[in-house]
Amino acid sequence: MAAREAAMSGMAAVRATLYNVLMRRNSVYVTTCVVSSYALTNVYLKGTDSLWKSINKGKSWEEVQARLPEKEEEDDD
Amino acid sequence: MASAFWRSLTLPAVAAAASSAAAGATLFSLRPRPTLAFADDEALHPPHINWPHSSYLASFDAAAIRRGYEVYRNVCSSCHSMNRIAFRNLVGVAFTEEEVKEMAEDIEVEDGPNEEGLMFSRPGRLSDILPAPYPNEEAARYANNGALPPDLSLIVKARHGAENYLWALLTGYRDAPQGINVREGLYYNPYFPGGQIAMARALYDGAVEYEDGTDATTSQMAKDVSTFLAWASEPEHDQRKKMGLEWIGAFSILFFFMLYMKRFKWSLYKTRRLEFR
Questions:
Q1: A61 chain-B contacts, CB cut-off 8 A
Q2: Hey, what domains does chain B have and what are their CATH numbers?
Q3: How far is CA B104 from CA A61, B125, B170, B227, in A?
């Protein structure tokens, strides 16, 4: 099989490999879909989250909390 | 004065239009639309301010919400309630849990009945709503010359112009122009519909002392408290915009897959040839 793929050119070889490795058996194919959708969602949400944070730099509560003045000495009121 | 003129002009037209509506809907649509005078027309429209949270992808500024709560507590809360906001809503938004617990413990809340059937007072908890200045509407009116200070929980959604209006109103107090007689107990404010408002100017430079050292000018306090009230009206604001970014982004990517899929499926129909003999 490897010899046949080697004979193909670039893209076709990649597609043939993908087909042989991931899509030939249905169980493997479904597992691939589930696992990759989970991974891609994680990557996508991390990306949008960092985009959101870079747009709103300095405005989130976490960042505001980090630069609060020390409050230990005035706890009587 | 202008409105009295318009009302005299338009009210018969409204009545005529209403009576003809029964006669026939088609005729009604051909008639000239009656001009309605709204109370808002008598107010100066607030300028649109470029808030830190105005843009499609901009979140609230937590520091401004924090300062805005200080302004609300020290100034506004002596007349205005916020009965849809509980102490716990502030946690993780502009205060830590410990800070909010301390703030809540400072107030007395009537609770009960206990096992003897009596009401009792206890220190506030995170789940209590922000304390109201008056027990009921009548007490609020009685204390304020007959005018009811509105609850501020949803005020940003309840007013045209939203936080722009609030900022303009809070900073818009000035002497009435010549020819306008302000009734006793009212104050001139061009942004308030009708121009005369029962609330006196509340924000003066230095009315509160910010813990983060920001200069407490009138406009700064108006901006902060408007931001706080905008948050109170729409606590889901940040998540809404972030979810919008995520979903619109995801569907924009999927759009191109769908485009490819459609062309793929249609390629058979687009390239076949039909012959009729």
A1: 62, 92-94
A2: 2-37 (no CATH), 43-85+132-238 (1.10.760.10), 96-128 (no CATH)
A3: 20, 5, 27, 22
